[in-house]
Design a protein that fits this description.
The chain is α/β, with parallel strands linked by helices. The chain contains 16 helices and twelve strands.
Length: 422
């Protein structure tokens, strides 16, 4: 029988970080009011629709929007009217390139009276895409594929994606500043840095990195398309990065960027909830937790205290092989549990996928404890891990988080406790 505390606690956390409520509360409590005259809205990313719902609850006027999301659910709005486009994630396809053009066309249709509000969240890098000059759509998609399956940190992946895009790295912002009265960006961050240029590869955020940085990263990626490398190399010779940033400074009084929610905010919220119920907990990092999981016996950490972290531990997937049902949260959960159990550590571990859907499953990660694991179960776990079918295993064992729908997409929330031996 599984312990209900971590399950119920994670369900509570999921409800408290639901993107719709976060957006609505952020707007209601903010001192700087929205510019409502000629308000135009672009929403992009996995949390795009939920953020639009939160905005709709706050508005007292009619406004037009364009949204690009991975799945189009039927939603009725009180004050908003517009178009919702579906596009592909995590590798862009024809729908992503059509969405990129639609967003560029939407900006082109605006005039000097328009006040543009951009709601952005993770997933935008793939959902809204256009290749830079010299690359075809197919070549751009292949670049994304090689980057996604490289196992590189997301900040490195986005560094390259910004430079091989016609709209990322602040290029859409540049166009909008030449058209609109003002631009306001509100973001939910799925990256550790919480920096705007890293969220969705920064279509509406100035890119602080020179092209040379992206070129050096791309050169480390196995079989990265040579044509894209040549384009990056050419940009490094002719692109005036400093001038690009200086141009943005001229428009800075009309541009305002704000963070609605982030990984660090998620950690603080979890710690506060633990404090409310008087359970001992401390903040750590995903990197430190995975060091514990890799070498449980040799790592010093306080028993019976919950360790809390939010972020992403990248998994290098087989590029063209069929894989089972699951995603990063459930895969990392099984991988850690196997290592801990084989080391004889008594533990509880939960990993919550905050977008409510872990990879290609309809579940949000799961929970496991050492008490449940015997030699037969260890063999089953190892088989599920090898087949990249982690969520199916957790669901079969009634350990998967089902019906958790925060749609907030700030990464994975880890809760780990080394239990004191009785």
């Amino acid at each position: 029988m599984q312990n209900q505390f971590p399950v119920d606690f994670c369900r509570l956390i999921s409800s408290k970080i639901e993107a719709r409520g976060l957006t609505s509360r952020f707007l209601d409590s903010h001192k700087k009011p929205l510019a409502l005259s000629c308000l135009k809205i672009i929403a992009m990313g996995k949390s795009g629709l939920a953020m639009l719902q939160g905005l709709d609850e706050h508005l007292s006027c009619q406004a037009d929007f364009l949204a690009v999301v991975p799945e189009h659910k039927k939603i009725s709005f009180k004050n908003l009217t517009g178009k919702i486009l579906e596009a592909k994630h995590p590798i862009p396809d024809a729908t992503s390139f059509a969405a990129g053009k639609a967003v560029a066309d939407y900006i082109a249709s605006l005039d000097h009276r328009s006040n543009l509000l951009v709601l952005i969240s993770g997933g935008t890098s793939s959902l809204v895409a256009l290749p830079c000059s010299g690359l075809s759509n197919e070549e751009k998609a292949e670049c994304h594929r090689k980057l996604i399956y490289s196992g590189l940190p997301i900040s490195d992946i986005n560094s390259v994606r910004r430079k091989i895009s016609a709209i990322k790295g602040g290029k859409l912002l540049y166009e909008a500043l030449n058209k609109c009265c003002s631009i306001r960006l509100m973001a939910i961050s799925d990256v550790d840095s919480g920096l705007f240029h890293d969220i969705g590869s920064g279509p509406f955020s100035p890119d602080p990195e020179p092209v040379e940085t992206a070129l050096q990263i791309a050169e480390r990626v196995k079989n990265f398309p040579q044509k894209a490398l040549n384009i990056l190399d050419l940009q490094s010779e002719v692109f005036d990065h400093q001038r690009f940033l200086e141009d943005f400074q001229d428009f800075s009084e009309r541009y305002h960027a704000e963070l609605i929610f982030s990984q660090r905010m998620a950690e603080e919220l979890v710690l506060n909830e633990f404090a409310k119920i008087r359970v001992s907990a401390a903040k750590t990092s995903v990197e430190k937790l995975h060091k514990i999981f890799a070498n449980p016996a040799s790592t010093e950490y306080e028993p019976d205290k919950w360790l809390v972290a939010c972020g992403e531990n990248e998994i290098k997937l087989p590029e063209y092989a069929d894989i089972g049902i699951g995603g990063r949260a459930s895969h990392n959960l099984l991988q850690a549990a196997i290592s801990l159990a084989r080391s004889g550590v008594e533990f509880e571990l939960a990993i919550l996928a905050t977008d409510g859907k872990d990879g290609n499953s309809g579940r949000a990660g799961g929970y496991i404890t050492s008490e449940l694991i015997d030699s037969d179960m260890l063999d089953e776990m190892a088989h599920a891990l090898k087949a990249y079918d982690s969520s199916s295993f957790l669901f079969k064992k009634n350990l998967a988080f089902s019906g958790f729908c925060s749609e907030t997409n700030v990464g994975d929330i880890y809760l780990f406790r080394r239990k004191v031996r009785q």
